[in-house]
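Homework help board

Subject: predicted structure for assignment chain

Our instructor gave us this sequence and asked us to write out the predicted structure in token form, then describe one feature. I got the tokens but I'm not sure how to describe them. Can anyone check?
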Amino acid sequence: MRVRELHAAEAGEVVDTVFDGLSPRSRYLRFHAPVPRLTATMRRRLVDLDGDRRAAVVAECHRTPVGIARLVATDERTAEIALAVVDPWQRKGVGTELMTALGRLATDLRYTRLHGDVLGENQPMLALVARVFPGARLTRDEDDVIRVTYPLTFELTHEELVADLRW
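My token output:
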């Protein structure tokens, strides 16, 4: 398996292959709703990559896409992230590799914070986040959606610095 940056020219085929490899349950967990097929609008959004404000990485095995992770800028320094791994490849390290690569790409693109929403019932994704982004802040809303926020840069407040120096 290899993970690499996904380019706009190939994004359509990759998105279609990964989506087709997701079970109805996996699609529900990824999109937070039943999604039996990609609408033209959804597909257009997923394949719209510019390598900066909208970027992605793809995991491949023998040149067949088995997963994709995307980031979409929500402001100049923050990006929303999302991940999908085809069912036969779930819980085999693909998600870890994709999220790690996406974190590196976000850093290269000079983002300082990542965030994403995970359904509370999606425990495997929450465990993945904990492994790849230790210290991520989790905030649960009233619909049992968990907002994951992770700083890519380490910043100490004045109070934290003084406390560390005193300790």
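Reply (TA_rk): Your tokens look well-formed. For the description, you could write something like this. The chain is about 40% helix and 30% strand. That's the kind of observation they're looking for.
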